[in-house]
Design brief:
single chain, alpha/beta, D-Maltodextrin-Binding Protein, domain 2, 3 domains, ten-stranded mixed β-sheet, elongated
Length: 513
C-alpha cells in the first residue's frame, strides 16, 4: 500500500512537472514576437498612411497584392493622428506620413525598427486649389486675405500641410493674417480639396499631388508657399511582427519601376529609387583592414533586409586600380581618404566613419626593445610594411617614414611588403618578421602574441576611413541604407573593439588632403 501510494505520488509529480513545463513553453511562445519571411504567412501588413497618399497607395496596393500575394490593411488619416494612434496601440508594420518630419518624431519616440528602416519616396508642393478657370483670379497670398474670400486649410495640429504651412508663413510674418482670414480648418488635406470642389469655399491650401483626383480643380502656385514642401517617406515600425515582409513592401514602394512609377503618375515628384528585385544584390569594395569591424553588421543587414551584399576585401590600391579599369561597385569603404580621392568622381558624397592609427607591431614582450621608428633601423632587424602601391597602409607608412626622417635607413631592413596588414600579422606570429608597421586594428585580435608600439609626434600616421555610395549604382538606396547601418550607433562598438576610433559627427571626405 505504501509502495503503491509512493508510486502514485511520483507519477503525479512527473505529470505536474510536465504540465508546468508545457505552460512555461506556451507562455514563452506567447511572449516572443513572431517574425516571418515573406512567404511564410497570410497575415496582412498593417500600414498607417497619410490621407494625402491614399489614391496612389490604393493603386500600388492593387499591384502589390497581385504581384506578391500579400494582403495590405491600410488605415488612412492625418499624419499626427496616425502617429498618436500607432504609439497608443503598439501595433502596425509600416508608417507613411505626408512628411518625414513625423518619422523623425517617431524615431525619437523609439517607434521605428532600426536606423535603416526609412525609405524616401517623393516630394509634394503646397499650392492653392481653386475651381477650374480660377474664377476669383487668385494669384498671390494677398488675394486670399480679401473680405469676400472663403478659404479652407487643413488642421495645423493634425496634418502635415497645416503644420508646414504654419511654420513657413510664421517665419515670413504672414501666418497671423492668413489664419484670421481662414474660413474653416479641416481634418485632412483631402477634405480641403472636397470643400473647394463642392463650392463650400473659394480656395484651399493643398498638396499638388492631391489634385490628381480632382478634374474640376486646378492649382495656383504661389511664391509665398514655395518653401512648403513635404518629403514623403515610409518606415518599418518596431511593433512589426513580420519585419522582413514589411521591408519587402517598403522596397517595392521605393522601387523606381514599381511604387515610384505610380507616385510619378499621380502627380508626386519621386526620388531616384532602385530597380525592383525580389532579392537585390549590391557589391561592396572595402579595404581588408575594415573586415573585422563591418562583417557582422553586413550579415545582420542582409538578414534584416532579405538582400545579398557581395564583399570584395583587398588592399585599397588594388581596389582603386580595378575601379579605374571599369569595375565599379555599388559602394566603397576606403582605408584612407587618399584612396577615396582617387575615385571621388565615382563617389561624390563620401562620408568619414572611423579612424585607425599606424603602430609598430612587435613580439610579445618586445624582445628587440623597439620604442620608435628609428629603432626599426637596428642592424639585422627583419621589418615588414604594407605595399605602397597596393594599399592605403603602405602609402601611409611611406609618408610617415618620410615625415619622421627615417625612410632611407628603415627601408634597408624591410624584407617584405604586403597588400594587407593581416598578412604582416600572420608573418609576425609565424616568426618570419621581427617587427612590422600596420594598423592598430590589425593587431587587435593578437594581443596574447603581439604588442603594439604607438608612433608619436607624426600626425599623418592616422588614417581616416570614408564610405561612399556610387553615383551610378542601380541600387543606390539600398547601398545608402548599408552606409546607414555601418554608420549607426549599434555599429560603433564593433569598430572600437577592433581598435578603430569612431568619428562621432558625420563628416564628408576632405578632398584636399
Amino acid at each position: 500500500m505504501g509502495r503503491h501510494h509512493g508510486s502514485i505520488t511520483r507519477t503525479m509529480a512527473v505529470m505536474l512537472a510536465s504540465l508546468a513545463l508545457v505552460i512555461v513553453l506556451v507562455a514563452g511562445l506567447v511572449r516572443q514576437p513572431r517574425t516571418t519571411t515573406v512567404a511564410e504567412t497570410n497575415e496582412p501588413l498593417v500600414i498607417y498612411c497619410a490621407a494625402s497618399n491614399k489614391s496612389v497607395l490604393e493603386a500600388i496596393r492593387s499591384d502589390y497584392e497581385r504581384d506578391c500575394k500579400t494582403t495590405l490593411q491600410i488605415q488612412y488619416g492625418p499624419s499626427q493622428t496616425l502617429l498618436a494612434s500607432l504609439e497608443v496601440s503598439g501595433t502596425g508594420d509600416l508608417y507613411l506620413p505626408a512628411d518625414d518630419s513625423y518619422l523623425a518624431i517617431a524615431r525619437e519616440r523609439k517607434l521605428l525598427a532600426s536606423e535603416t528602416s526609412e525609405f524616401p519616396l517623393a516630394k509634394m508642393q503646397a499650392v492653392v486649389a481653386v475651381a477650374k478657370g480660377n474664377p476669383k483670379r487668385i494669384a498671390r497670398l494677398e488675394d486670399l486675405l480679401q473680405d469676400d474670400m472663403r478659404l479652407a486649410q487643413a488642421s495645423v495640429e493634425a496634418s502635415a500641410i497645416g503644420k508646414l504651412t504654419c511654420a513657413a508663413l510664421t517665419a515670413s510674418g504672414q501666418w497671423d493674417k492668413l489664419h484670421a482670414r481662414t474660413t474653416v480648418y479641416k481634418t485632412t488635406v483631402n477634405e480641403v480639396a472636397n470643400d473647394v470642389k463642392v463650392g463650400a469655399v473659394d480656395a484651399g491650401i493643398v498638396f499638388d499631388a492631391v489634385l490628381h483626383d480632382y478634374d474640376s480643380l486646378e492649382a495656383v502656385a504661389m511664391s509665398e508657399l514655395a518653401a512648403v514642401q513635404a518629403h514623403v517617406a515610409v518606415a518599418v515600425l518596431k511593433s512589426s511582427g513580420q519585419p522582413q515582409r514589411a521591408l519587402h513592401f517598403a522596397r517595392y514602394l521605393a522601387a523606381r519601376d514599381k511604387g515610384l512609377a505610380k507616385y510619378r503618375e499621380f502627380g508626386f515628384q519621386p526620388v531616384d529609387g532602385d530597380v525592383w528585385s525580389e532579392q537585390p544584390e549590391i557589391t561592396l569594395y572595402s579595404g581588408s583592414m575594415l573586415r573585422p569591424a563591418i562583417e557582422a553588421t553586413i550579415t545582420d543587414f542582409e538578414k534584416r533586409e532579405g538582400v545579398r551584399v557581395t564583399r570584395v576585401y583587398n588592399g585599397c590600391g588594388i581596389l582603386v586600380a580595378q575601379m579605374k579599369a571599369g569595375q565599379v561597385p555599388d559602394a566603397y569603404f576606403a582605408c584612407d581618404v587618399e584612396f577615396m580621392n582617387q575615385v571621388r568622381g565615382l563617389f561624390p558624397e563620401s562620408e568619414n566613419v572611423s579612424q585607425n592609427e599606424l603602430v609598430i607591431i612587435v613580439k610579445k614582450g618586445n624582445p628587440h626593445g623597439i620604442k620608435s621608428l628609428h629603432d626599426l633601423a637596428k642592424p639585422g632587424l627583419r621589418v615588414g610594411v604594407g605595399h605602397e602601391k597596393q594599399c592605403a597602409m603602405g602609402w601611409l607608412t611611406q609618408k610617415t617614414f618620410d615625415e619622421g626622417g627615417v625612410k632611407e635607413e628603415v627601408m634597408k631592413n624591410v624584407v617584405v611588403q604586403t597588400p594587407t596588414g593581416d598578412m604582416l600579422v600572420n608573418q609576425m606570429r609565424s616568426g618570419s618578421l621581427d617587427a612590422a608597421v600596420a594598423y592598430l586594428s590589425n593587431a587587435a585580435g593578437s594581443g596574447e602574441f603581439l604588442d603594439a608600439i604607438r608612433i608619436k609626434g607624426i600626425p599623418c600616421s592616422v588614417a581616416t576611413q570614408p564610405f561612399g555610395v556610387a553615383k551610378d549604382s542601380a541600387n543606390k538606396q539600398l547601398a545608402e541604407r548599408l552606409r546607414q547601418a555601418i554608420r549607426a550607433d549599434s555599429s560603433k562598438e564593433r569598430f572600437t573593439s577592433e581598435g578603430f576610433q569612431w568619428v562621432g559627427e558625420r563628416s564628408h571626405v576632405n578632398t584636399t588632403k
